[in-house]
Amino acid sequence: MRLSRYFLPVLKETPSEAQIVSHRLMLRAGMIKQAQAGIYSWLPLGFKVLKKIENIVHEEQQRAGHIPLLMPTLQSADLWRESGRYEAYGEEMLRITDRHGRDMLYGPTNEELITDIFRSYVRSYKDLPLTLYHIQWKFRDEIRPRFGVMRGREFLMKDGYNFDLTKEDALHAYNRHLVSYLRTYERMGLQAIPMRADGGPIGGDYTHEFLVLAETGESEVFYDSEITDLKFGTRDIDFDSVEECQSVLEEFTSRYARTDETHDEALFNQIPEERRRSARGIEVGQIFYFGTKYSEAMNAVVQDQSGAQVPVHMGSHGIGVSRLLGAIIEASHDDKGIIWPEGVTPFHCGIVNLKQGDAEADAACEAIYLDLVKSGLEPLYDDTNERAGGKFATMDLIGLPWRITVGPRGLKNGVVELTSRRTGESEEMPPEQAVERIRQIYANH
Ligand code: ATP
Ligand code: MG
């Protein structure tokens, strides 16, 4: 993309309505624009990152064997009456009446709708296990929408639902989700720690929340500092293997890590004092096993091996896709702007032309640009007439992890500059070598 043809409405001033750094930076970098309280338009740069995150979530869900579909945002109130949640859900549910006077709602989650799909088609244990998921907009009429996309009213969520014959099978699905979430967040450059949580209105005995540690997080958390040394890394895992998934779950959940809702002071105090931590965290996902709660209420039954009709065991598993943008920025920024991890960056590399209009500099930038595009990468070439300082400030603000700087002086010696946004370190090298370095960096992303 050439910046002169792009739509990147960056702001010079710090917007006064934004209280936390990720919200400020998303507004300043021209990623989002508030449409109403807690409802945002995703401008091109923000939309690009949102799609990258969505894509990682899709890939990791499908790697774990989960099947994508798409359910609507508007749902019928009648289904929610069956589960008893139409009345129980409270003011966060946006209730709508259509022209025929029928009660509808903008889905805050999808347990009812997916259970209805399941019961319409699945009759036998032979069709299990089954895990279906979608990535779809949700609406919750939050009393205090704030912090930009972190607590929106309209927000994008991955929600997945497993259907299993037995509790044992459903717990394997639970473990499988835990493992796939670890991979998912690490690919986004995040450390998200699974913590024992509370079932809340969805209910359930087994539930973990995934938390990214950040001072601005809304959750209070308590943990053993050893847990922050754990990495899932590049290990290969067989998601069908009960033992493998169970052992990863044990590895990542055996140390103390809880949200304030389940915090147990006595247990916490058994950890050696120097490892005890209390901190703030951002909830970026949650997994639940809730047994037959919905399948019993909504008659989602299958025939088991003995011919008996039994309600299926279910769980639901959510990732806060739009909230993740805020969480990643909270975890990765400096006073100049965002620092995108390679896995989610909107453009792979920035190209800054120090002297637009200089024939040699223009030609060198063009060649680098086309080379990167040919390699399947997306560079953002600042080909505007802005002065160098302004170009650098914009690149730093929007946070591309790598920048190639091209100027007449360097070109005289046959070199350009390759700069890491994270470390600020620059290296001079011939243009072809800079392109090759970028290629190598992204070979694994
Ligand atoms: P919270 O406690 O933050 O209100 P929740 O526990 O009600 O969230 P879940 O039902 O577990 O949310 O939804 C799954 C994920 O969706 C959450 O882990 C979170 O990342 C994201 N999410 C929930 N509410 C919002 C919101 N208002 N804005 C943005 N993301 C949200
Ligand atoms: Mg939650």
Could you report the average pLDDT, rounded to the nearest whole number?
A: 96
| Uncertain ranges | none
Q: Supply the helix-strand structural class.
A: alpha+beta
Tell me what the CATH architecture of the largest domain is.
2-Layer Sandwich
By CATH reckoning, the class of the largest domain would read Alpha Beta
Number of distinct beta strands = 23
Q: What best-fitting shape do the alpha-carbon axes yield?
A: globular
CATH superfamily of the largest domain: Bira Bifunctional Protein, Domain 2
Secondary structure elements and their pairing?
Elements: H1 21-28, E1 32-36, E2 39-42, H2 44-63, E3 67-68, E4 74-76, H3 77-83, H4 85-88, E5 94-97, E6 103-106, H5 111-121, E7 130-139, E8 154-164, H6 167-187, E9 193-196, E10 206-213, E11 219-224, H7 242-253, E12 257-259, H8 265-268, E13 276-291, H9 293-297, E14 301-303, E15 309-311, E16 313-320, H10 321-331, E17 333-334, E18 337-338, E19 349-353, H11 359-374, E20 379-382, H12 388-398, E21 402-406, H13 408-412, E22 416-420, E23 426-429, H14 431-442
Parallel strand pairs: 3-7, 19-20, 19-21
Antiparallel strand pairs: 1-2, 4-6, 5-6, 7-8, 8-16, 9-10, 10-13, 11-12, 11-13, 13-16, 14-15, 17-18, 21-22, 22-23
Helix pairs in contact: 1-10, 2-6, 2-10, 6-7, 11-14
